[in-house]
Every structure is written in structure tokens, then in C-alpha cells.
Amino acid sequence: LISRLSAIPHELRIIFTTLFFGYIVHGFAYANTLFGHDNTKLFSTEFSSLRWSALLFYSARAFIQIPWVIGLIALLELGIVNVLLARLLSLRRMSSQMLLVLTVLTYPSVVAFHNYGAVDIFTGSLLLCVLAVYFYSRKGVLFTALSLLCLTVGIATYQAFVCTAAMLMLAILLERLTIRHDSVKAILLSALKAFLILVVSIALYYLVYRLLDALGLPGTTTYRGEDQMGKFALSDLPLWLLKTYVSVFRYLFGKGVQLSYIVLKYPQLFCIGVVMVFAVVRLAKEGCFKQPARVLLALLVGVRLPFAMNAIQFLNNGESPHMLMTFAYIAPWLLVLQYGEWLLRKAPA
Question: Distance between CA atoms of 331 and 308, rounded to whole angstroms?
Fold first, then answer.
């Protein structure tokens, strides 16, 4: 079986295993009515200027209320997400790719997507945001424009996925600093590019929203009945920033915040610890710590990673995120896979 799977191109293998394990993990929902509240009405009969790209994802299966078909669309989108993540994280080993597929499919946020009926709207939005990061990782003005376009349209359906894009961009920068040993200047320019893509995409999304709102189109809405974008005092920002970091650490180390608390917490902390220790040893042998600028920049990226994972809380006036908004918290698992495979490539024994 392993030899047969190895002979399949890894993109097809990842999509196939996503479908296979996806129906095992979420088959109950796909074999019954997806009973979340978002599935009790037809999105095509409504319009929300706050999520102005939602109909783009919904139109792929407009008026279809067959759960297994909706599930198939969602799993195909998750399969492409896994292909992109494998490329971004340089996961070439079949075992790493399988672990990636299983991690994404069983992640609490993905479980939550299925509890809200219109699962393919979440997975479609997620796909565009991950695709935006893939385009960001490529060189050229065209790829930068495509990255900006994908991220703008992606967050126009679910704004919290801007955290996923930001987290993956930081993971790429960290890899270039530690694994690939790119020049510090090139990495700084890439960081500036990432920052501009994130800021401009949010601005464009909000501009379209305000335009649609000004036109008074049917179904015009605001989050919690109010538009709080840009309404804050400077004294609010430190508290919101603190809450943003606290939520991430409570999720990783606290109780009662995530599904399968014991099952997720201790294996994750063990894996993080083992990979971190061996990565530090490997980097020391390669002379990475003899370059102060590289070490400082890596620390700055690492410190900003929890903020990127939960930036939506900072942008949402410090309001704690719910399960649908926390897919970016998958970052520690992704880093374990990424650096774990790098260590195995360096020292197979």
C-alpha cells in the first residue's frame, strides 16, 4: 500500500487522503442534514455587505441541499489547502503529509465549520487566504497582485482568516531565517511586502463594504449591529494587545478552552519541546547563533507569531474569539511538522 501511494503524485495523494479521512472524520454530518443554523435558509436569497464575497463560494452549489455533495466540495477545498500547506512548509515525506491531512481535518475549528451548515463557505474562504500566502511566497508583481486579490476576497467572507494568512507569512519568514539562511536584507523586504499585503487587503475589503453600505443595498449589515472599525482610544490598544496574547496562551496551556483538552495539550507541548531542543542544537552546529542580526530577527518573528494567530481579537476591540475564528491556532502543529521534517532530512538516523 505504501509503495502504491508513493507512486502517486503527492498533490493527488494529499487530496485523495483528505477525501478518504475527511469522510471518516465528518461522515456523520455528510450522511445527515447539516443542522447548523446557517443551513436553515438559502444564502442566495439574502445579501450581506459585511461578507460581500460569500455568494462567490456559495454559488458553486447554489440551491443544493444534499449534505454529502456539500461535504465533497468542502473536502476538495480542504484538500487543496493541504496541498498548498505542504508546499509552503516544504513537507516532502509522505508521513509528514499524512500527519498534516489528519491534523487539519480533526482540528477543532474545522469541526466547528461543520457545525454551522455552510461548511464550504468557510473552507472556500480559507482556501483563498492560504492561496494568497502561496502567491506571496512567489516572486513578481503579478504574484503580489494575485496575493492581494485572493486575500481581499477571502476575508470578505470570513475576516478571521486574515490571522491564518499572517501566521503562515511569519512561518515562511522564520524558515528563511533559520532553515534556508537567506540574507537578512531580503527577509526584511519580504516582511515589508507581507505587511503591505495584509494592510492593503483589509483596507480594500473595508472600502468595498463601506461602498455597499452607502448604497443601502438590501441585507446591509454590520457586525453586532455596529461598525467599530477605526473607533478606539490609544489607551485601549495595550489592553487589547495583552488580551490577544493571553487568549493564545490560554488556548495552548489552559483548561476548558479547546476540544479534547488533554488529548491535544500534552502531546502538542511534548512535540514542541522535542523539536525545539533539537532545532536549537542543529542551528547552533550550523553557526546560526554567530549572526546576531539573524537571531534578533528570528526572535522578533517568534514574538509576533501569537499576535498573528489571534490578530482578529485585537481588531475586534479585544473581544475573545470563538472556535470558528481560531484556525490560525494550528500554527504550533504546523511548525512541529515543518521543523521535524527538516531535522529528519538533516539526520535520518
Answer: 10
Res 45 pLDDT > 60: no
Distance, CA of 310 to CA of 307 (rounded, Å): 5
Say how far apart CA 2 and CA 230 lie, in whole Å: 54
Count Cβ neighbours within 10 Å for each residue of 4-32 and write b for 16 or more, e otherwise. Answer: eeeeeebbebbbebbbebbbebbeebbee
For residues 1 and 80, what is the distance between their CA atoms, to the nearest angstrom?
23
Termini Cα distance of the chain: 24
- At 72-121, the pLDDT tens digits run 889 999 999 999 999 999 999 999 999 999 999 999 899 888 887 678 88
Phi, psi (degrees; rounded to nearest 5) at 154: -65, -50
Cα distance between residue 164 and residue 170, in whole Å: 10
Model confidence pLDDT, tens digit, residues 127-139: 999 999 999 999 9
* Distance, CA of 325 to CA of 322 (rounded, Å): 6
User: CA 299, 331, 129 angle in degrees (round to 5)?
Assistant: 110
Tell me how crowded residue 328 is: count the other CB atoms within 10 A of its CB: 27
C-alpha–C-alpha distance, residues 214 and 79, integer Å:
38
Helices (H), the chain: 2-7, 10-30, 54-58, 67-88, 94-105, 108-114, 119-136, 141-155, 162-178, 184-214, 236-253, 261-285, 292-309, 311-315, 331-346
Q: How many angstroms separate the CA atoms of 97 and 193, rounded? A: 29
Handedness of CA 326, 327, 332, 335 (dihedral sign): negative
DSSP 8-state assignment for residue 88? H
**CB distance 193 to 144 below 8 Å:** yes
- Using DSSP's 3-state secondary structure scheme, residue 221 falls into coil
Q: Cβ neighbours of residue 283 under 8 Å, at least 6 residues apart?
A: 178, 289
Residue 199's identity, in one-letter code, is V
